[in-house]
Amino acid sequence: MIRHGWPILLCFLVFSLASCDSAEENLGDQVVARVHQKELRLSELSGMFPRDATRQDSQLIVQSFASRWTKDASMEWEAERNLPADLNIDRLVRDYRASLVSSHYEEALVGAKLDSAITQDQLTTYYEENKQRYLLERPIVRCLLLRVPYPLQEEAELQALWNNGKITDTMALANYGERFAEVALLKPDDWYSLDDIITQLPKGVLTVKNVNHKKEFSLQEGSYRYYYRLLEVKPRLEVAPLSYVEDQARSMMIQNRKLDVLEQAREDIYQRELRKKNVEVFSLEE
């Protein structure tokens, strides 16, 4: 709890801070707040005051921090007061410290030894060996999709490019999309989640059930005209194409390499200490 003299002390401290060229100078070590025997001192707020802070700014910073601190300190005091009798807090602290030290060193090891370069051949090999990990949870499609504000700009050009058949000039169609379309998915080799495509079209036009039957259409609804052409669909539980899961596969390869680096480092360090006779295992006394 903050004592009743806190507002007066706050005003004095803030006035002192405001009189300095920087609110970080000459902070001193005054007690700002106290909860039981735990104290917050003004020096602990060093670095929190902008150089151009006004007295009011500094007051708000101190007051806000002290408010949070007293709540946290009160909770900590209550938690300590209610610790279970069988809780070995010292052991927990030791274990946590050991975990932090090990984690820090492991990060350094990984940073120094990890080879994060992945060639296309390595990626392909990994994918071929682990295909069953990449079964689709939802259908995906290769398709072309345009959503263009209606009435259309240069409609004759668009109709000629779309041409109700095979698109031969994809660059020209992409150029039209950049100029006029709000949505332009025009890369024939790219895969998209069917759910994402469905959300780009009027409700109910395309569904999981009719995706294989509505292979091509154009329609006008509201203030948009839509052009859609299905190139390929892969249903749920089929193996995802490599291009669709490439980022995921690369991340998994990196993660596996990290584990290999750490496992090798652990073994090397253990064997070194074993050779130096710094490792001992004792039999239990009968």
TrEMBL record:
UniProt xrefs under PROSITE patterns: PROKAR_LIPOPROTEIN
Extent of the signal sequence: 1-23
Record key words, sorted: Signal
Lineage top rank: taxon: Bacteria
Protein name: Peptidyl-prolyl cis-trans isomerase
Organism name: Neolewinella antarctica
